[in-house]
Specification:
The protein is α+β, with helices and mostly antiparallel strands. The protein contains five helices and three strands; from the N terminus they run H-E-H-E-H-H-E-H. It has one domain: 2-Layer Sandwich (Nucleotidyltransferase, domain 5).
Length: 102
């Protein structure tokens, strides 16, 4: 599904999926994401990024921070690396898809 989103958008697929928000607080869910996607998932700190993003935008609007503020101020809480072999993923997804289609 993620491949299709990037394919349709014309944007390059990032090598690391950056996540934030309430669901990203769940370590098991983030590990499953990394395993299912076959790519690292990077959780930022703070997890709730709405206020962080608003503060960055306000600071940029007032000239407190430049356009590179996000790169300098964004902190990584944890990176979840995929642990499932990609061949196993492909077989598992094929079986799941066949089950759903029948």
């Amino acid at each position: 599904m993620l491949d299709r989103i990037y394919e349709d958008s014309g944007l390059p697929r990032p090598s690391i999926l950056a996540v934030d928000g309430g669901a990203s607080a769940n370590d098991l869910f983030m590990q499953i994401q990394a395993d299912a996607l076959g790519q690292p998932v990077e959780r930022m700190a703070p997890i709730e990024a709405t206020a962080f993003g608003a503060a960055i935008l306000a600071g940029q609007a007032e000239g407190v921070w430049g356009p590179d503020a996000v790169d300098r101020l964004r902190k990584i809480d944890r990176t979840f690396e995929p642990t499932w072999p990609l061949a196993g993923l492909a077989i598992g997804f094929s079986c799941r898809l066949a089950t759903l289609q029948s």
